[in-house]
């Protein structure tokens, strides 16, 4: 089982940028796909971006395509989410997660992930 810890969330103005990091503690990081999810108040947790275990393929929800970039550094056991051109509707608690099954292409359903970080707040002011 892996332990995940997000960092980098803060208050930013619309149009600004942030980079979230997710440190993974354990020995399964390099063999599993990873994802970023977010949950706004009163809404369900939604998929934001995912990356395969090799890093070769990525997927994004439509609302962040062209603005957000997911990446991974297996040498540092760290997952990243670069967020540019932020909008107030990006305000949410962001979670990183590890896919349950190793060596798979990127998956997007919350039920495909079984390890979660504690979440970190991102607030975008208008």
Describe the structure.
The chain is 0% helix and 48% strand. By secondary structure, the chain is mainly β. Strands 2, 4, 5, 6, 9, 10 and 11 form a seven-stranded mixed β-sheet that branches. Strands 1-3-8-7 form a four-stranded antiparallel β-sheet, with no helix packed on it. A hairpin with a 6-residue loop joins strand 4 and strand 5 (46-51). 33% of the residues are buried.
Question: Keywords, please?
Answer:
11 strands; mainly beta; four-stranded antiparallel sheet; 0% helix
Mean pLDDT: 96
- Please provide the count of β strands: 11
Number of distinct helices: 0
Structural class label: mainly beta
* Net shape: globular
Instruction: Note the main sheet.
Output: 7 strands, mixed
Walk me through the topology.
Layout: E1 3-7, E2 11-13, E3 18-25, E4 34-39, E5 46-51, E6 58-60, E7 68-73, E8 78-83, E9 92-99, E10 113-116, E11 120-125
Parallel strand pairs: 2-11
Antiparallel strand pairs: 1-3, 3-8, 4-5, 4-9, 5-6, 7-8, 9-10, 9-11
Please outline what is shown here.
By secondary structure, the chain is mainly beta. It has strands at 3-7, 11-13, 18-25, 34-39, 46-51, 58-60, 68-73, 78-83, 92-99, 113-116, 120-125.
């Amino acid at each position: 089982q892996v332990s995940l810890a997000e960092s980098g969330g803060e208050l930013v103005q619309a149009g600004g940028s942030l980079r979230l990091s997710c440190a993974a503690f354990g020995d399964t990081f390099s063999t599993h796909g990873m994802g970023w999810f977010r949950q706004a108040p009163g809404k369900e947790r939604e998929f934001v971006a995912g990356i395969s275990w090799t890093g070769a393929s990525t997927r994004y929800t439509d609302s962040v395509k062209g603005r957000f970039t997911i990446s991974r550094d297996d040498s540092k056991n760290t997952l990243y989410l670069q967020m540019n051109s932020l909008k107030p509707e990006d305000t949410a608690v962001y979670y990183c997660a590890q896919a349950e099954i190793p060596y798979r292409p990127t998956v997007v359903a919350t039920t495909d992930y079984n390890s979660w970080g504690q979440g970190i707040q991102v607030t975008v002011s208008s």
